What we know:
Structural class of chain A: mainly alpha
CATH topology of the largest domain in chain B: Neuraminidase
CATH architecture of the largest domain in chain B: 6 Propeller
Shape of chain B: globular
Low-confidence stretches of chain B: 508-528
Number of strands of chain B: 35
Oligomer: heterodimer
Largest sheet of chain A: none
CATH class of the largest domain in chain B: Mainly Beta
Largest sheet of chain B: 7 strands, mixed
Strand content of chain A: under 5%
Amino acid sequence: MQELNSISARPLTSKALLPLSFFAFYFLSVYIIVNPVLIYHGGSTITNFPVFFTTPHFLHQHLVYPAGPGQYIYALVAQFFNFNAAGALIITAQTWLIFIALTYISKKLNAPALRHLSYLPPLIILFLYNHYTFHFAAFNTIAVQLILFCLYLKLPSKIKPVALIIASPIIYYILGPSLLYLVLLCIIYELLISKNYINAIIYAAQAAIIPYIIGVIYCDISLTNSYCDLLPFSWKTTSFSDRSKMLNFVYLLYALPVAITFLAGIFSIIKKTSLKTKNKNPFYKTATLVAILAIALTATSLAYDKKQKTFFAIDYYSYHKNWQKVLDLAEKLPNNFFAVHHATAALYHSGKLNDGLFKYTQHPDALLFSDNKTISTNLTVFDIYLDLGIINLAEHYLARNISRLGERDIFLQRLAWINMIKGNTETAKTFLTALSKTLFQKEWANKQLKAIKQDPSLANNKEILSARKNMLQKNVSMATITHKDFLTYLLEANPENKMAFDYLMAWYIITKSTDKFINCLDQLPDFGYKQLPTVYQFAILAHTYSTKKNVNLQGYKIPQQTIQYAKQFYALMNQYTGNEQLQLKILNEKYGDTYLYYFVRKFNRMSEFTGRPK
Amino acid sequence: MKNKIKLKYIIPTITALLIVIAIAGFVNSPDLSSCETSDQSPAIRPDYSGVTIPPNIAPMNFNIEIQAEKYLVKAYCDSKDKIEINSSTSKIIFPAKPWHNLLKNNKGKTLNIDIYTKTKNSNWLKYKTIENNIAAEDIDPYLFYRKIHLHHYRSRENGPIELLQQNLTNFKTRTVITNQGFHSGCVNCHSPLNHKTEKATIGIRSGIHGTNTLYIQNDKVQKIGTKFGYNSWHPDGKIIAYSKNKISRFFHLAKNEVRDAIDMDSMIAYYNTQTHKVTRINDLAQKKKLESYPMFSADGKHLYYCSTDFAWKNSKKLPPNGYDKVRYDLMRIAYDITKDIWGTPEPVLPASQTKKSALMPRTSPDGRWLITCLADYGSFPAWLPSSDLYITDLKQAEKTGKFNYEKLSINTDQSQSWHCFSSNSKWLVYSSKQQNGLFTRTYITHIDDKGQASKSFVVPQKNPLFYDSHLETYSFPELSTQPTKISAEKLIAAVRNPSQINVDLPITMATPKKTSYPRSLIPYTESE
């Protein structure tokens, strides 16, 4: 008896070993490469990441329409993307469910040869996450519907129609029109495998009727939404470019189970036999499969969109003020305004602005975004305005982000803070109360609510007071103001606003307005400069070289070493006069990260700017 | 087997005991014999104290802003009806039926609310009684309003724009139409005829389906191939006067309210619901003037509207120079519907007199009152904290020939706008940002025979703390005696249907032209 057990256990272990190791690596790949927390943050690109509030009202909102309960659960689960390990676990579980369902379906439909196709959906899903798309609802929906189809297959033939007819309205209520997908699979099964045409007709009829009765008539929702919500074919996905990215792969994912069922059915008709695997050497067979899977998984993992990931990571780390990470990442995205913009902010916050400014490809448009430049990008650029003191502009961008990306906690937190700065404590309380109903920001929100209760004017909060001091006072329309005006007005409001001063100097330097930069040198002592920063030294030398005028250094000194370095630069430049292309190439090689080089090169447009890598 | 028998008896016994305990706890009033009294008025949220309330209003649930272990609330009048709520939480939810009985049986009387609290190791403490007046007149039971996120950007991937219907007597809310039904877009100006839904219009703007007006007649809906901006039905339902506005938004860098909007161009025309023709009103479509916010008087003999001189030369600059000096006059023009003849414009509240910009005039259905927003400048009061509501007695004006105006007591230092009378002219609903300065909520006030407004109150919600964390604005309230009779699906189908009533606005020098703006400045034709 013991012997028998060990015999039957052995193949089971070896059978399970392959998927187990596959999903273990899968988890690691998601955890290490995808970083679900980046998806949670959204890179200002993912517009359909669900919000979740712990209020009864939020729950009730989801209970009154078909697909609402499903969306509520999806929204709750999605919040855990905020933790890399939990997010990776969710994605792995999602794909594992699809995998076991497909394996079961191919086995149950007597088509074991197709079971290896079960590995394809996890690979597709990994590929999609690796490209920072978010089709979470579609993945969940297919996973649940496939499990339900497995249950359907497991039922005795006589019970099948009764069970489906009874369960359909419930499934429709919870998961919405994705019921239609389940019904489609059941119809194919009944037509081609069971050959029970009456069942197929009944299913088709109920699939047509249920959404209409529950969705259109009872819940008064539109015909399209009644039949498409939660499916990847819904206009809510297809109509928005950010959501419809790589949608064909999602369609492929949805087509696969249909194809497996269909093929199994067709083969059962044509050959009257099952789709069985040929009897090859089992070792050879397993080894081949392992090799193929290993290659596929590695390839999919490594085929991640590096630029997109860097972009998402910059967005994430700059929000969380991890400046060193931002600086490291921005190097990987040269010529991208967004990366340069955040790198510049990171340099400022790390106290390296005037030394490392030109390590990144600067451009006047990257320092401070203006409204016209970012109208369609909605990037998370609000923090720089908040830090500088252009509070209304930060508020404007955040409100836009809420319109586009939803009532995400990451935005509510900033809006609450902005209103605390502005002294709008009642408005701040509204945002904070909403935030206190989220999963991860409630502690901060409650702390601030308590602070407001104790001191409604927040007059004892040093951070708030400092931000208030920096607030822009001069009112003008956002559309008409220039970058220089922003910074000048900020200094008018608070002449001690060091960030505004440094940014104004950076603006003059980046726009090559060195005469204006020189005029401000006398203010350096006011901002605690004991010596001239490297970038300033080069800017002065570039100005002197180009204008042939002496500069009043206001008591500061430029080290001989720097002067020698500049002389070498100009000597090299003069050496190649007449051949501009070669001149710039050579200068770039040696002096590319200095202001001297930046000063002589023409402003070139950075590679087509969309805010995000394409 | 023994276990089964035990369970058979134990479960029902425990259940019965629990029910008895629950009933006993519910029925038994706490012992107030040693109760102490306080002179303090109890703080409740929303502030439902000292207000005049409609006798048909839904339970005005509130939260007691006092920390305690136990709460007792007694609501009573001088009749036998009384509600007593014994609660361990500060949220007080009135039972619907007793609430309605209490109000219905005590019209014109005072509704007293006694609040008691009890903290650990202390006696019950009774606060000063809250006294609210129950008016004799009902409010129209249906409130239509628009729900939208803070309006900064055209994109609507998240947060639908919806036109909702709320039953003021029982909280029931339904979606009349949502932009989620027609691939996003905008749902805006909604206008029922004479406080009924048999005839109504809804403005729609969609990138895919165009900018249109849904014209509803009972359960039929037609799409008119133009959008009515601010509009007003003639009381006989034959024509709709509407303004065609080129509204442009812009954003302030240092004002507390970031958003602002200005009419770059506007004119008034009217649509004949029988001939489906649009006709220009010559005096209200002048090249050198901006005319907006048409509103018919209750008898339909006058059309009130707002007008100002076209003040800038450079229409491409946003905002144009001197935008903050723009002040609209409130005007009116006589109209004879039988002959379809318009009279001569006459000033009602000229800016030279008010020193303010007069906007959004609304007349009461009984013809007695005219309420207008007066703001420091501009054309869009919802974003102007200086916008307050002023009342004019039209009957008196008829006698004296002089239009006086008086500031209503309900005004706050935040924006008041989008006001609407009830069909009996006794109630006024309006949008106000008084809660926090940013999110618009709908408030109700009673207007007495002298034109005095009672202390206003926010539209009750089942959850008294609903507004505390709600991040959408509720604006443009319209009262109706009837619920909408048409399904959202039908309205959406009409939006999607390519067939429409084509109307052509006669092009004149005053017709707002299509101007190419920078992308960021694409003008909005409607807003919050």
